[in-house]
């Protein structure tokens, strides 16, 4: 499944209809959440999606505003409530922090979905036809590929967007016979087993001064005023710019790796655990390792490449040439093995160990799939 994102160019009347539809969906979400919460508190009963969906026609007769929104959009709103409760019970069962579903205030509900393409939503030329809203001009800079399945209308800081989800066929790339290990870090965004380093762009750090200035501007405004709303929008756009720059970097870096290597070996990172007690948590978030690895896996799957995730334990402390344990502090950036005399950057040594754990050789050559690298051949 691949999502294509297009900027919408609505008229003032269509803009009002989009905002009205979003507000009705937000209120329906809160109504469905309150109904479930009340049923459990008073009668100890759990209300299902099927029950709420069956009561939707009667609710439309009482709440006439619901008739201004397509039925599939309303049904998807109830589906979101059901998904929130399913996720809540899943976290409870797993022993994690539950996080009971919350009511959505103004500004905290930013999208609605037409779950079936052709039922309430279709594309005609350069216009997106949305039931109950109208034909909205579309900035169609890239035609979508595959079979469209659903469309989500999203409100962002700089306007409205259409996210069209399409089912596509994989496009395998010709084999290159190469494998690579990747060690992500903060000094460099990533170090490859062949010694190449990908610089860390640090988008948030670069924009941090402007973001702080935008925060101070917002704090001086009176809440509810037009100046407050303008300052809030400027701050949201500044954060959106950082987010998009990080996303663009992740896509381009993942594409370059997938085009060049058949087998890519990465670390299995517990990023949430690192953020809880790491002194460099802000820099870890800024690097966007999780986003990059997610995009890398998706592109590799589409291109017929293999991505292997390994346990990173010992990859920084063991020598990639002889396999001996060489302890190093985090501040030590150079690997110097007293046993075999190996000298290289700490991150390249880790990347070579990652590649070996994933089935490659110490020098980055590919092995037949499934053939492990034993210790005897490594020490030779």
Order of helices and strands: EHHHHEEEEEEEEEHHEHHHEEEHH
Strand elements, count: 14
Uncertain stretches of 5 or more adjacent residues: 362-380
Helix content: 40-55%
Could you give the distance between the termini? 45 Å
What's the structural domain tally? 2
The description of the largest β-sheet is: 7 strands, antiparallel
**Molecular shape:** elongated
Plain-language structure description:
The structure is a single chain. This protein is 44% helix and 20% strand. It folds into 2 domains: 2-167, no CATH class; 179-201 and 244-379, Nucleotidyltransferase, domain 5 (2-Layer Sandwich), CATH 3.30.420. It is elongated, with a radius of gyration of 26 Å. A hairpin with a 6-residue loop joins strand 13 (334-336) and strand 14 (343-345). The chain is of the alpha+beta class and 380 residues long.
Chain-wise SSE layout:
Elements: E1 2-9, H1 12-43, H2 49-54, H3 56-62, H4 71-94, E2 111-114, E3 121-124, E4 127-130, E5 134-139, E6 147-156, E7 159-167, E8 179-184, E9 188-192, E10 197-199, H5 203-219, H6 226-260, E11 263-267, H7 271-277, H8 281-287, H9 289-303, E12 306-310, E13 334-336, E14 343-345, H10 346-357, H11 375-379
Parallel strand pairs: 8-11, 11-12
Antiparallel strand pairs: 1-5, 1-7, 2-6, 3-4, 4-5, 6-7, 8-9, 9-10, 13-14
Short description:
This protein is of the alpha+beta class. Helix content is 44%, strand content 20%.
What would the keywords be for this entry?
2 domains; disordered C terminus; 380 residues; alpha+beta; seven-stranded antiparallel sheet; five-stranded mixed sheet; Nucleotidyltransferase, domain 5; single chain
């Amino acid at each position: 499944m691949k999502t294509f994102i297009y900027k919408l160019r609505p008229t003032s009347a269509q803009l009002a209809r989009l905002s009205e539809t979003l507000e009705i969906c937000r209120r329906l979400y809160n109504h469905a959440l309150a109904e479930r919460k009340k049923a459990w508190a008073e009668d100890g009963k759990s209300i299902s999606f099927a029950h709420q969906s069956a009561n939707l026609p009667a609710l439309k007769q009482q709440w006439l505003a619901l008739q201004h929104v397509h039925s599939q959009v309303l049904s998807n709103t109830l589906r979101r409530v059901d998904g929130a409760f399913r996720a809540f019970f899943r976290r409870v069962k797993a022993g994690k922090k539950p996080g009971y579903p919350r009511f959505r205030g103004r500004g905290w509900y930013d999208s609605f979905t037409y779950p079936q393409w052709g039922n309430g939503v279709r594309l005609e030329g350069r216009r997106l036809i949305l039931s109950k809203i109208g034909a909205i001009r579309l900035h169609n800079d890239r035609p979508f590929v595959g079979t469209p399945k659903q469309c989500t209308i999203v409100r962002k800081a700089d306007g409205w967007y259409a996210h069209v989800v399409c089912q596509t066929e994989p496009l395998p790339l010709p084999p290159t016979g190469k494998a690579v290990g990747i060690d992500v870090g903060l000094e460099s965004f990533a170090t490859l087993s062949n010694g190449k380093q990908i610089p860390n762009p640090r988008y948030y750090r670069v924009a941090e001064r402007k973001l702080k200035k935008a925060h101070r501007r917002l704090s001086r405004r009176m809440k509810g005023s037009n100046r407050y709303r303008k300052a809030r929008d400027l701050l949201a756009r500044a954060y959106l710019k950082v987010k998009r720059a990080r996303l663009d970097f992740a896509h381009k870096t993942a594409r370059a790796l997938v085009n060049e290597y058949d087998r890519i070996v990465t670390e299995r990172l517990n990023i949430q655990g690192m953020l809880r007690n790491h002194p460099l948590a802000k820099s870890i978030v800024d690097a966007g390792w999780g986003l990059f690895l997610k995009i890398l896996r998706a592109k590799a799957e589409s291109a017929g490449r293999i991505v292997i995730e390994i346990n990173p334990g010992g990859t920084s402390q063991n020598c990639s040439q002889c396999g001996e344990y060489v302890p190093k502090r985090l501040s030590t950036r150079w690997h110097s093995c007293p046993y075999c005399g190996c000298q290289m950057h700490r991150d390249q040594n880790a990347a070579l160990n990652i590649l070996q754990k994933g089935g490659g050789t110490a020098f980055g050559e590919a092995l037949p799939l499934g053939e492990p690298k034993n210790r005897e051949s490594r020490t030779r």
